[in-house]
């Protein structure tokens, strides 16, 4: 616990991995909705702990965090059908909050002169959050315009199920972000295609720029800490009695 307090990005990374890697295999179990909302709340708290250092970011971050927290837990007070506007609001707020979080995290990492393990974890957190943001975006598009994505087999069944569509689109988001590609899903409408292309570009640009920056800082720190080379002793020429020059080594 002490190491997690000293390395706040690691706590956020653990909660994100639980949310996007571990939980999808448990979302059909009993009480999965409550577990999902608990994990989302932990991600929210973890993100808020490591970002929003500036006053303007802090104020906007607090406002978005409070609204997002309220939207997550107020959904239990409404039936599923009447809760659709609240769910749409939740996804919109989550998108805004995580976009602001990614920008703040990347600026924090960029301003550091030395690279630590916690900063590498922070870069990975920003990359995962980018996939989460596009997953919210895909879900928003599919909810507003059903049929924007077409799936085959089991993926198509999950996409048609409102309770499972979010996890299916989250899978699609991450394979697009990594430029792996999904053979069992196709963006069928212009909006879905445009966002898919944008995510693929952002994923490649993110890796190229961020990794280059981290490597450059790591090499620069190693060169700065390396001892300066010592100059070899020079020998001066010595004249002999015959007028010849003898070089003394």
Mean pLDDT: 76
H/E topology pattern: HHHHHHEHHEHEE
Assembly annotation: single chain
Tell me the major beta sheet: 2 strands, antiparallel
Helix content: 55-70%
Count of spatially separate domains:
1
| Range of strand content | under 5%
> Structural class, from secondary structure content?
mainly alpha
Kindly state the number of beta strands: 4
Terminal Cα span? 62 Å
Radius of gyration: 26 Å
Unreliable residue runs = none
Please tell me what the overall shape is. globular
Total helices: the number is: 9
Order of strands in the sheet with the most strands? 1-2
Compose a concise summary of this entry.
This protein is mainly alpha-helical and 249 residues long.
Provide tags for this entry:
mainly alpha; two-stranded antiparallel sheet; 249 residues; 5% strand; two-stranded antiparallel ribbon; 9 helices; 4 strands
